[in-house]
């Protein structure tokens, strides 16, 4: 089978900072200063001009290369911020790459959203034409498939009603119906399967299988590993903008699930390199321990563990900051965040915590809280004495794999059920089940 | 043998996505391919605005009529400005019809990128489809207003009022094309710049209003003192408005030289617009 998409050395950089501060006044001021030979009035003291212009680049994608063959269903997986959406946007031509190129063969239809460009005042019928044209169909193509689209959407009765009267479910169904009849050679889909009711989802999945069985190529971005393994033949994993895995879908999914455990169990910023923090405080290091004081990166689902973060206050502040931990699941969704100001001195008496020095914040995470899986921990320090000020927020700094030894828990917590429990948490609750009749 | 294998292995790419390097590449063929979309946009803009309104498309007539009446009252009766001997109502109506096309098209195309960010962020089609459709849909309301103007003109003419429509009327399509391209050019320049400088939107709103007074809409060019006439003539809209009024009312003067200047100005403006558009098109989604 021949290659229909060839991605070579694709990179995408976003400029940070400069985007927010771009008003005409600032740029004119900078330009005036330059022609008068004076330093840039907007630079911070000691900052180099070049730094402002060329520094602060954020690489959402870095040197990504892979090929997609004809008729293949490729899954793209990765956590939030891994670069999936950026890759999809470049493929859809919504934004351009900074470096590298993508070569394509055939017509591409991308579905980053369903019902794009629906006008609320227009009827379903009118919007089918509008939406179809936006997605690249000609009027005659839409007319030819109109009846099929309406039948697929299941909103026949309301086809002459303005879409502003539609329920959100009908809205999505109509949108997907149009998109499903695009007949592209390459279909790019972003998580649209996450919307709609179960019956409609099933319809969407079978439509996608149908598309791929006709020798067309499909690219799917999804957080749902079930979708990936059942639909895709191959998958790639993006992490931090780079391609970290590429292979058979089932294999890659397993690899991805354990990706979390491979990141460090200790982060240390005291050995030089990057400084995390600001003038008030900096992060020194962070790690996890079990109750025996051993450093860990994996824990039994029933065991409590400690998350520790060492930071340094550089100045005396009117009020103490509070350290906070953010727990994220594999998809990058925050499960919860915790904060505390329980400062204690060396003799365990209360302390104010606002004097310069090195502090260790320790948070005990109880056993029987998380579900089986991998979790990321973000580290932050917040001051509130003068508005909310974040000295640092190191997202996904640590990761812990929570393991459920099914053989041990099968009779107790699992009630004899060996399958997967849904959700990021699986706390142990107090239960009473009484027979009342 | 080797050559054959090469050709069979190397597929024929139909599209390449890469950092844009083209300087003035507007891909007009691609724009032509989405003509159905442009027409649907035109239709949407025309239809959707008047759903759930009482008067509907009658607004196309009411707006210029009220503006013309206001101008006739204030500038004609109260301020008693000269209208070059043309009936004041027709004089102001001619100006209003021209100006409202220019200003509505400019105002709407100037916000193309910012106003359509949600749409542009989700799907790709030739970005110029939106401003082009705006220029076209405003042509419909121009046609309605122009027909109204012709109606009034016929009434005045039949009654023997001092109006003298002449052969220059044949130039109307050219004037209209210049007007459309000028508003499109300015609109694209401003919308390209607003992806970076949001303040331009504020500037535009009263800028267009002030511009009207810098254009001989409520006064004839002949009223401008000779010393300042070059300023009025530097405005590319002046020759268009003057030529339009001369063709239909016989007032003022027509100068092919001045019209040629407008045309040259338009050409340069379109080049600048194309260049700016090319620069922001691929990456504006990152800054909007």
Number of helices of chain A: 11
CATH architecture descriptor text of the largest domain in chain A = 3-Layer(aba) Sandwich
CATH class of the largest domain in chain A: Alpha Beta
| Helix/strand class of chain B | mainly alpha
Biggest sheet layout of chain B: none
Query: What's the SSE pattern of chain A?
Result: EHHEEHEEHHHEHEHEEHHEEEEEEEEEH
Gap from first CA to last CA of chain A: 66 Å
In total, the number of domains of chain A comes to 3
Beta-strand residue fraction of chain A:
25-35%
* Order of H and E elements of chain B: HEHHHHHHHHHHHHH
Total domain units of chain B: 1
Q: What general outline of chain B do the C-alpha atoms trace?
A: globular
In terms of quaternary structure, the protein is heterodimer
Radius of gyration of chain A: 27 Å
Q: Spans of chain B of 5+ residues with little confidence (pLDDT < 50)?
A: 1-9
Mean pLDDT of chain A: 83
What is the CATH T-level topology of the largest domain in chain A?
Answer: Rossmann fold
């Amino acid at each position: 089978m021949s290659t229909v998409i060839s991605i070579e050395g694709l990179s995408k950089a976003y400029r940070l900072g400069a985007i927010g501060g771009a008003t005409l006044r600032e740029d004119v001021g900078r330009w005036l200063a330059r022609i008068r030979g004076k330093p840039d009035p907007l630079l911070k003291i000691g900052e180099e001009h070049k730094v402002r212009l060329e520094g602060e680049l954020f690489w959402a994608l870095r040197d990504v290369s892979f090929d997609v063959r004809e008729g293949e269903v490729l899954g793209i997986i990765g956590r939030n911020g891994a670069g999936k959406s950026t890759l999809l946007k470049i493929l859809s031509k919504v934004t351009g790459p900074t470096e590298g190129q993508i070569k394509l063969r055939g017509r591409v239809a991308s579905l980053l959203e369903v019902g794009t460009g629906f006008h609320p005042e227009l009827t379903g019928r009118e919007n089918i034409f509008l939406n179809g044209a936006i997605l690249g169909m000609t009027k005659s193509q839409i007319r030819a498939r109109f009846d099929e689209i309406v039948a697929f959407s299941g909103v026949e009765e309301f086809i002459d009603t303005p879409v502003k009267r539609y329920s959100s479910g009908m809205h999505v169904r109509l949108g997907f119906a149009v998109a499903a009849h695009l007949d592209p050679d390459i279909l790019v889909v972003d998580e649209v399967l996450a919307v709609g009711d179960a019956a409609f989802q099933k319809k969407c999945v079978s439509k996608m299988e149908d598309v791929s069985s006709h020798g067309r190529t499909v690219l799917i971005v999804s957080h749902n590993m079930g979708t990936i393994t059942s639909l895709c033949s191959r998958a790639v994993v993006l992490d931090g903008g780079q391609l970290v895995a590429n292979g058979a879908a089932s294999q890659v999914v397993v690899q991805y699930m354990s990706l979390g455990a491979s990141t460090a169990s200790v982060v240390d910023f005291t050995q030089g390199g990057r400084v995390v923090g600001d003038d008030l405080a900096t992060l020194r290091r962070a790690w996890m321990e079990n109750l025996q004081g051993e450093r860990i990166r994996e824990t039994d689902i029933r065991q409590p563990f400690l998350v520790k973060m060492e930071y340094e206050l550089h100045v005396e502040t009117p009020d103490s900051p509070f350290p906070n931990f953010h727990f994220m699941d594999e998809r990058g969704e925050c499960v919860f965040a915790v904060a505390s100001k329980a400062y204690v001195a060396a003799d365990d008496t209360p302390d104010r915590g606002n004097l310069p020095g090195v502090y260790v914040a320790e948070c005990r995470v109880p056993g029987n809280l998380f579900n089986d899986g991998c979790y990321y921990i973000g580290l932050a320090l917040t001051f509130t004495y003068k508005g909310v000020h974040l000295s640092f927020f190191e997202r996904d700094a640590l990761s812990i794999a929570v393991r459920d030894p099914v053989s041990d828990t099968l009779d107790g917590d699992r009630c004899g059920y060996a399958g997967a429990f849904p959700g990021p948490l699986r706390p142990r609750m107090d239960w009473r089940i009484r027979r009342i009749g | 043998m080797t050559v054959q294998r090469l050709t069979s292995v190397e597929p024929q790419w139909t599209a390449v996505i890469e950092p844009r390097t083209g300087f003035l590449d507007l891909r007009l063929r691609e724009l032509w391919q989405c003509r159905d979309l442009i027409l649907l946009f035109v239709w949407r803009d025309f239809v959707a605005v008047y759903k759930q309104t009482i008067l509907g498309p009658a607004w196309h007539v009411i707006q210029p009529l009220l503006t013309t009446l206001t101008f006739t009252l204030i500038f004609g009766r109260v301020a008693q400005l000269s209208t070059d001997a043309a009936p004041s109502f027709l004089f102001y109506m001619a100006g209003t019809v021209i100006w409202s096309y220019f200003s509505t098209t400019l105002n709407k195309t100037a916000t193309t990128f910012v106003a359509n960010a949600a749409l542009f962020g989700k799907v790709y089609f030739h970005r110029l489809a939106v401003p082009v459709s705006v220029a076209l849909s405003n042509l419909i309301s121009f046609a309605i207003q122009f027909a109204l103007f012709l109606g009034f003109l016929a009434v005045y003419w039949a009654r023997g009022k001092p109006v003298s429509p002449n052969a220059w009327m044949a130039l109307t399509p050219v004037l209209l094309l210049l007007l459309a391209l000028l508003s499109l050019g300015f609109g694209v320049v401003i919308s390209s710049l607003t992806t970076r400088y949001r303040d331009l939107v504020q500037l535009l709103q009263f800028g267009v209003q002030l511009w009207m007074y810098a254009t001989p809409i409520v006064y004839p060019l002949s009223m401008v003192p000779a010393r300042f006439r070059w300023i009025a003539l530097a405005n590319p809209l002046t020759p268009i408005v003057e030529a339009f009024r001369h063709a239909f009312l016989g007032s003022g003067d027509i100068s092919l030289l001045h019209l040629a200047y407008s045309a040259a100005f338009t050409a340069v403006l379109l080049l600048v617009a194309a260049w700016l558009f090319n620069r922001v098109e691929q990456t504006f989604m990152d800054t909007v």
